[in-house]
Write a structure and sequence with these properties.
It contains one helix and twelve strands. The protein is mostly beta strands. The strands form two sheets. It has a six-stranded antiparallel sheet, with no helix packed on it. Strands 3, 4, 5, 7, 8 and 9 form a six-stranded antiparallel sheet that branches. Keywords: Signal. This is Lipoprotein.
């Protein structure tokens, strides 16, 4: 799972350019309602991770979600980015899949990532992933780890509104980069009021 899609990669470049440049006029959000903000928090190998939309001088989005639909299948991807002082970036996220997004119910817990039907390229359940890059200006990564290589993941939905296209919940997982052997443990994960837009173009089965 590549959390650094083209969209998030371009966002990171924009953030880096804005934060490094000479900005003389900025609009700040002084009345941001943190209780209702789109937010993702967790611990990555014991270190705190936090991403909040609309926070900071630029009031940009650090938490994003998108949905893809195919016939009899959907994938909801939620990902968050935390920038470091040295210009690097850490992304944490998950994919939630199934037959119909409206099948999701508050209180549901997902612990597996398996084909919807035998031989299908579409999956149901949850997949966690975490990726670290040394710079927002590079495609290279320090590690890119997935729970698909450990089978250790759990996500519980605490709030779900298909009309408002909003989801909240908790999660934790263990991930492995199968190329360099890096193991990453994500604990105490929470996401709140994460909203997704209209679905992308239908995905074709490979």
């Amino acid at each position: 799972m590549n959390l650094f899609s083209r969209q998030i990669y371009l966002l990171a470049i924009l953030l880096f350019a804005c934060l490094s440049g000479c900005i003389t006029s900025l609009d700040t959000k002084t009345d941001l309602d943190m209780a209702n903000a789109e937010k993702v928090t967790c611990e990555v190998n014991g270190k705190p991770f936090e991403a909040v939309n609309g926070e900071g001088l630029l009031a940009l989005d650090f938490v994003m979600a998108d949905i893809e639909k195919a016939e009899g299948a959907f994938v909801l991807t939620v990902y968050a980015v935390q920038l470091s002082d040295d210009g690097g970036a850490l992304a944490v996220g998950f994919k939630l899949g199934g037959e119909q997004v409206t099948d999701i119910q508050t209180g549901d817990t997902f612990t597996t990532w398996t084909p919807i039907t035998e031989g299908s390229s579409h999956y149901k359940g949850v997949l966690g992933a975490v990726e670290k890059r040394p710079s927002v200006n590079t495609d290279e990564h320090i590690f890119k780890a997935s729970s698909n290589h450990t089978r250790k993941v759990s996500l519980t939905v605490t709030e779900f509104d298909p009309v408002a296209k909003s989801i909240s919940g908790t999660f934790h997982f263990e991930a492995l980069d199968d190329e360099n052997g890096t193991e990453v443990v994500v604990t105490n994960g929470q996401f709140q009021h994460v909203q997704w837009g209209d679905e992308a173009e239908p995905v074709e089965e490979e």
